[in-house]
Please model this.
Amino acid sequence: MVLCFVSMSVTFGQQKFSISSYIDQHKKVAQQLMKETGVPASVILAVAIHESAYGNSRVATNLNNHFGIKGKNNSTAIRSAYKGYGSVFDSYNDFVGLLKRKRTTQALFETKSSTDYNAWVKGIARSGYSASKGWGSKIISTINRYDLNELDVK
Model:
């Protein structure tokens, strides 16, 4: 895990990602978080892809925030209501932590399998994670389009 963090910290600067390079760069962290918590790697990656424009959004590049989580930041580069992170890994870890902390998503950890990405996405969508209509459909579409469910192997 530490090696993964170090490689992510060194690799991530202000680079532009393609969808495939983003998936290649982040899939191991998503899979490790899945092993530790049960949240499907496909869901973690699809949400990050959607919320951060696969790592290319201003919030992602300036605040290391790949999940659109709101909160404080100390950025002088952009004004934003989104939370700032010391690393991309911290953002990924906080996303899973947020799901564990929210009363409306806690039950997913006890009742849903790490291979049932549909149930996880529906549960996260019902919890109010995103205010945009069709968010869940977009996440499921991203998982299906890029075969991210193949990462959900135990």
Summary: The chain has eight helices and no strands. The domain at 15-151 is CATH 1.10.530.10 (Lysozyme).
